[in-house]
Amino acid sequence: MRETHARYAGLTDGAVADYIPKLAEADPDWFGISLASATGRSFSVGDAQQEFSIQSISKAFVYALVCESLGHDLMRERIGVNNTGLPFNSVMAIELNGGHTMNPMVNAGALATTGLVPGDSWEEKWDYIHRGLSAFAGRDLELDEEVFASEMETNLRNMGIARLLQSYGHISIDPMRVTELYTRQCSLRVTTEDLARMGATLADGGTNPVTGAEVVSPAVSRDVLAVMATTGMYEASGDWLFEVGMPGKSGVAGGIVTIAPGKGSLATFSPPLDAAGNSVRGIRATRHLSHMLGLNLF
Ligand code: DON
């Protein structure tokens, strides 16, 4: 891992996201890698203790929690599992699919998924998300209030997507509050050590290998990994699967979590992104580690 970190630390490709103003303050040199096994062991190198907002990586874990509550068939029908072939914040993907979302890993499907979170009040819904994501990580995750406020001031596009979904009958509660809840889940702070543990929980069939908590069932873990494989890296999911050979999920703050089912998880953090919104160093480092450790599933 040390060798992989040194190999890619000097890469200067990619650009730090700035459409959420607070994210633009990230240091482009931050680079951390963590590995967590499905037996509870972990290793890290670089900026593995640097906290950053989980962003779209939350989509995979909130999807898992909602699948646990609502089940395989309903989630497949309501949210979909196919790649859009379009950017993560595409509006056109909704229109081209008859007003339906196509998968839970892009913003439309993630907003619709968050709209299905159980709870009688917004507080209960947030508690469900917060407690669930914290159980995946094995510690109480904190909200980055500044990132949350920064995105809430600028996320007109997500509000538009949520309204559009409402117009098609795919969000049945207040779409502005759903957008706020989704933005909150994206603003939880994690480190690569947290992400690796969250991934290791999915690798371990939904049981956190450190705390022993059964967060979701093995069947739900399998469903989440399948949809991460097809869509976790957006329109670049095919390139990712071809090179890395494992399900992964990226976030616009620069995190990527990758799961080796039954074995464990790799997490990387490096803010500069490629055109699809995936961390450049993260992709290279994960690909290298996948080869070195023989993790490609195929
Ligand atoms: O909704 C958004 O635009 C962000 N909160 C999350 C997007 C994201 O992480 C895309 N990832 N690479």
TrEMBL record:
<dbReference type="InterPro" id="IPR015868">
    <property type="entry name" value="Glutaminase"/>
</dbReference>
<keyword id="KW-0007">Acetylation</keyword>
<feature type="binding site">
    <location>
        <position position="56"/>
    </location>
    <ligand>
        <name>substrate</name>
    </ligand>
</feature>
<feature type="binding site">
    <location>
        <position position="107"/>
    </location>
    <ligand>
        <name>substrate</name>
    </ligand>
</feature>
<dbReference type="Pfam" id="PF04960">
    <property type="entry name" value="Glutaminase"/>
</dbReference>
<keyword id="KW-0378">Hydrolase</keyword>
<feature type="binding site">
    <location>
        <position position="234"/>
    </location>
    <ligand>
        <name>substrate</name>
    </ligand>
</feature>
<comment type="similarity">
    <text>Belongs to the glutaminase family.</text>
</comment>
<feature type="binding site">
    <location>
        <position position="158"/>
    </location>
    <ligand>
        <name>substrate</name>
    </ligand>
</feature>
<feature type="binding site">
    <location>
        <position position="182"/>
    </location>
    <ligand>
        <name>substrate</name>
    </ligand>
</feature>
<comment type="subunit">
    <text>Homotetramer.</text>
</comment>
<dbReference type="GO" id="GO:0004359">
    <property type="term" value="F:glutaminase activity"/>
</dbReference>
<protein>
    <recommendedName>
        <fullName>Glutaminase</fullName>
        <ecNumber>3.5.1.2</ecNumber>
    </recommendedName>
</protein>
<feature type="binding site">
    <location>
        <position position="252"/>
    </location>
    <ligand>
        <name>substrate</name>
    </ligand>
</feature>
<dbReference type="InterPro" id="IPR012338">
    <property type="entry name" value="Beta-lactam/transpept-like"/>
</dbReference>
<feature type="binding site">
    <location>
        <position position="151"/>
    </location>
    <ligand>
        <name>substrate</name>
    </ligand>
</feature>
